[in-house]
Amino acid sequence: MSTNQFLEQLAGILPDERLLVRQEDLAPYECDALTALREKPLAVAIPETEDEILKLLEACRQHSIAVVTRGAGTGLSGGARPVAGALLVSMMRFNRILEVDEENLTALVEPGVRNLAISEAVADKGLYYAPDPSSQLACSIGGNVAENAGGVHCLKYGLTVHNIVGLKVITIDGHVHTLGNNTLESPGYDLTALMNGSEGMLAMITEIRVRLRVKPPIVRVILAAFDDIEQAGNAVSTIIKAGIVPAGLEMMDGDAIKAVEDFAHAGYPLDAQAILLCELDGLEAEVNAQIETVTALLNEQGATEVRTSRDDQERMRFWAGRKSAFPAVGRISPDYYVMDGTIPRAALGTVLKQIGAWSKEIGLSVANVFHAGDGNLHPLILYNGNIPGEVEKAEELGLRILTLSVELGGSITGEHGVGVEKLDAMCDQFNSDELALFHALKEAFDPHSLLNPGKAVPSLHRCAELGAMHVHNGKLPFPELDRF
Amino acid sequence: MDISEKLQKQIMDAARDNQALQIIGNNTKAFYGRKDIDQSENRALPLHVAEHSGILDYQPTELTVTARAGTPLSEIIGVLSEHQQMLPFEPPVFDGRATLGGCVASAMAGPRRPWTGAVRDYLIGTRILTGAGKEIRLGGKVMKNVAGYDLFRPMAGALGTLGLILDITLKLLPLPEQEVSYCMDADADSMQQILRDLRRRSMPVSGASYHNEQFLLRLSGSTSSIDDATNYLPAEMKETGMDYWQELNEHRLSFFDDNRPLYRLVVPAASTYETISGECIADWGGALRWIKTSLQFDEVQQQTGELGGTASIYRNATVGEDVFSPLPEQLLDLHKRIKKVMDPAGVLNPGRLYRDL
Question: What is the phi-psi region of residue A387: left when phi exceeds 0, alpha when psi lies from -120 to 50, beta otherwise?
């Protein structure tokens, strides 16, 4: 059957204004926030009902057309980048908050609802939704679940997976499954957890029950400056060791501080080599006691300056700098490449030194921002895409950092996802048995590989071909596979 | 001791021979899960994991611990408490003999669970043997990791049917500075009202149980936060011993000394207690109900369903009887396909969770 027949079938399901096929209409959908990798889909469908989705999936099954689901398109790893010849399904019309259950502290929402819109909708009840990726103003909750999004408060409040209690999903065979419920447990395998971070490859999400939390009475932020970045790293471990779990614990290096201060005027000390932001929330007396403890620890660890936010306005200003780190760096460099590796906290100093050394060797600057509390690094590699060879240099440096993260017991991605961007790095973190198992799991959900094919898990051949480039301790990875 | 090679060989042999295996740690939860007829006739071979024991890595500043599946929970809890840290989900330790592997496989969590989270919330990685005997590492040692499918989380509660857990990495929390227990005579509605009020004020509740018309409350946190909370408790609320919470968690209260089926209901916390007739202890602020009743399991399930929850038989089920709430047919099919991926020959604890898994 031809593409035309497929498109005709779609035209019978959706009205013209919700079925885009002209090249100029497809252009906005050719990438997500990983703009370097683009591909136009065959068509874009914008369904409004579950019934429309079921019919779209039926058409895709009949014609063996791949389906790529897209939320707000703010993803950083290309998870929503179209696959050539695929139908891109935009979930942005699924944008209703269906129910707020104050008694059980949950809300039932559709996947196209913006992350921040949930907190806004329940603010008058003194509640909020905790995960806060930097893109929370724009990103959709469906995309958050697909990528298991993080943010600056994961240390205390978890990733997206810790804040989702139930899902309604549609598998490619057209079956609608309710996973989880509105209680603390549900029978069977924990497929709700499995769906988090599955990057649209196992099923399409149509409803999400999120966990809400009561807003803490008091929130304060400590800003500490250091003239040595390793000292700042040590201070992070000292705070955790003291039995304090801050709501957020963030770090920036000198280059990032300068870029951010210029852009956001957050009042950061420009002569510092590193700053730490430590947010504490809870009851007033408790928070005040913790502030005393943390301040003393920071001073002991050699902080050159320690400030505490006096009110919410000042707290927001302290955060404004950190939250604008990416756009701020975007202003000082024509291009930048964001990394997302995670390492054990104790290795922070080692990794920073190594990144510094590689940065000199390769000749590209790196501005570092970290979710220091949970060991999630965001080195921003600065380059100029117009200078021949710089993209490749940036990728080389990025891959070295990710490989190091894995060697130290960490991960290639803490919160941005693999998408199409980190497929090669996946070969570092997982062996062929593990990757084969992931492929088999995908097949259990989607036997003909129609849902977001080729994302998140690299093929074994891809890893084998790449293997020649990464020889660790003389051992060739994937020795059991043929080389090409 | 590391006996993973021996375990691997046993699983590979079993897979080759289509021989069912029954995974056993220290056998403290033999009562739990579905009792397959095959197993009662001793057709399943025991796969003993208890010797595969020992803490592999504990870094207090990382707030993580890695230990082999056979390690007794009591050993882990002891080591953590030396560093003022704890397993956040407060698992029952069953006379100190329960193992980490069994704890994760059964996903049993104690009174603290509604306020701190479930077993799966603190799992950050595991190494398993699949039913084909392949060693697979899922997740890792860091708390933020979104590479690959989160297959390690469904290991919590899978009752060993998705793989034999070899070792586990968990996220930890600091031990609270102080814990205090209170009780008062109350009806269930006033308990809910008090809990709502404490929640609205962000008070550090860590246990709330209802038993014999008594409301028992536990607070855990800094001294200052507990002092603060005390101001908002009703005057009738009196301080009481901490033992209750352990007795409840370990099922040592006289309520649990009974040969009848013990039903375990997970429901919305404020659900009425009127629907299901029988004796009841509520934990988790009302969200977990232990029920002894003359009703049959299907009646219990139906009435629990009306409350918006699900029911299971925790203890004293008959052989061959289904003990967990049935899954819709298409969802069960999906479970079977996942099981097939993890355990192609179906040798790991077959029938323990559901008849055909």
Answer: beta
